[in-house]
Design goal:
With 181 residues, this protein is mostly helical. The chain has a domain of 124 residues: Regulator of G-protein Signalling 4, domain 2, CATH 1.10.167. The protein has 10 helices and no strands. α6 runs antiparallel to α7, α6 crosses α9 and α8 packs across α9. The protein is globular. The N terminus is likely disordered. One of its GO terms (cellular component) is cytoplasm. It comes from Neophocaena asiaeorientalis asiaeorientalis (Yangtze finless porpoise). This is Regulator of G-protein signaling 5. One of its GO terms (biological process) is negative regulation of signal transduction.
Length: 181
């Protein structure tokens, strides 16, 4: 029986994640998923008129997570989809790593590294991503002396996970289907 969160057995955690996904699917009932999409970047948010991507661009997302992540509408739609499944932590981690790589100041880099670690990597983190112990150990070792590549191994694992798991579910969803109608 599942009692306290800290003492949850592995199978109970798996069951909780299944329930979370099923609830997300039930909550996904918009008339038009494209209406829920808000472009991610500040540049797109400031633009009064954002255009829906061409059919050709949207079709490229089917086979390329990178092309999806590079497109403001694609990224926003993918994020909305993941949020509807209560599973946006992988994308949020990937985006945090991208922002982290742009930091030039060693002090700010160390602060951001600590924040990313506490939010996504450490055990029982609020948005803990699913990475193996080997990857976690490498990341922790890299954080002893933070550099722009400190999270590269973990970010690549999460990217691969999203490509293998999240992207196929996304392209079957109404969120993606709105773009290819």
């Amino acid at each position: 029986m599942c009692k306290g969160l800290a003492a949850l057995p592995h199978s109970c955690l798996e069951r909780a994640k299944e329930i979370k996904i099923k609830l997300g699917i039930l909550l996904q009932k918009p008339e038009s998923a494209a209406d829920l999409v808000i472009p991610y970047t500040e540049k797109a948010e400031k633009s009064a008129k954002t255009q829906k991507p061409s059919l050709d661009k949207a079709l490229q997302w089917h086979d390329s997570l990178d092309k999806l992540l590079q497109n403001n509408h694609g990224l926003a739609s993918f994020k909305s989809f993941l949020r509807s499944e209560f599973s946006e932590e992988n994308l949020e981690f990937w985006m945090a790593c991208e922002d982290y790589k742009k930091i030039k100041s060693p002090v700010k880099m160390a602060e951001k590294a600590k924040k990313i670690y506490e939010e996504f990597i450490q055990a029982e983190a609020p948005k803990e991503v699913n990475i193996d112990h080997f990857t976690k150990d490498i990341t922790v070792k890299n954080l002893e002396e933070p550099s722009p590549s400190s999270f590269d191994v973990a970010q690549k694992r999460i990217h691969a996970l999203m490509e293998k798991d999240s992207l196929p579910r996304f392209v079957r969803s109404g969120f993606y289907q709105e773009f290819i109608k």
